[in-house]
Write a structure and sequence with these properties.
alpha/beta, Trp Operon Repressor, Chain A, 2 domains, five-stranded parallel sheet, two-stranded antiparallel ribbon, binds adenine
């Protein structure tokens, strides 16, 4: 899979994507990253890429032409693949795990990072860009949202994480939040790890984990879809585990 990123701050993308799990995945060619400086497609020799907003208002807008030429060049460079253009914007559809899974199946995803007050609407129309938001707050530019999206998608690509099996158990994997987890020592500051986790009884541990996922999701995110997908058997098993825990004090 190829990510093209159109940005005014290429180093911000390259630096952040060059370390940790993304950095290793890039070094192992699990995906490709092609960062493009929008200024290379400026409309004049002074590197002009932005202008004032028609109708008045403070701030500047990225012009349609440099963005369009940059996007066109990237689509042509990988012309054998369909090009999926995403514009990161607080106005977009909110990124969730379902969207991440769907993007992980695409061959070329182009992430367009806006700055200033945004971009000329005609660029979005001409490229049929899909607008994506990472949450209901406003950032100074699209670079951090692009990195967030890329990180979430890249970790779903084959070979990026050590084990694909882990996904179902983690937060949002099955539409539920992750259960609490513990590591050594078994008692820390007089707080003991739940005894079932030390029992070595695989079926009991799995039942405990699922029950605590359900409990955590009900308490924190009752809106999540995973709760609606649980069977009567799942509810019964969770109730069993949780009521025993309460009885035990
Ligand atoms: N650009 C600025 N704020 C943003 C947000 N919340 N999501 C995506 N892109 C943005």
């Amino acid at each position: 899979m190829i990510f093209s990123v159109l940005t005014l701050f290429p180093d911000m993308i390259r630096n952040a994507a060059g370390v940790s799990i993304l950095g290793r995945a890039l070094a192992e060619s699990r995906f490709e990253l092609d960062v493009v400086n929008i200024r290379d497609f400026a409309v004049n020799d002074y590197g002009k890429v932005d202008d004032q907003i028609y109708g008045g208002g403070t701030g500047m807008l990225l012009m349609a032409e440099p963005l369009y030429q940059a996007a066109k060049a990237q689509c042509a460079k990988y012309s054998e693949m369909p090009c999926h253009v995403i514009y990161l914007s607080p106005r977009g559809r909110k990124l969730d795990q379902q969207m991440v899974e769907s993007l992980a199946g695409k061959s070329h995803v182009m992430l367009v990072c806006g700055h200033y007050e945004g971009v000329d609407e005609r660029f979005l129309e001409a490229t049929q860009a899909v607008e994506v938001s990472i949450g209901d707050y406003v950032l100074t530019g699209g670079e951090l949202p692009a990195l967030v999206l890329m990180d979430a998608v890249a970790r779903r690509l084959p070979g990026v994480l050590p084990s694909a099996d882990a996904f179902e158990d983690e937060s949002h994997g099955a539409g539920l939040l992750a259960e609490p987890q513990y590591t050594r020592p078994a008692v820390w500051q007089e707080r003991a790890v739940p005894p079932v986790l030390l029992s070595g009884h695989a079926a009991k541990i799995a039942a405990w984990r699922k029950a605590r996922q359900i409990e955590t999701t009900i308490r924190r995110r009752p809106d999540l879809d995973g709760l609606r997908r649980l069977s009567e058997e799942d509810w019964r098993a969770a109730f069993d585990v949780l009521s025993k825990e309460t009885d035990d004090g």
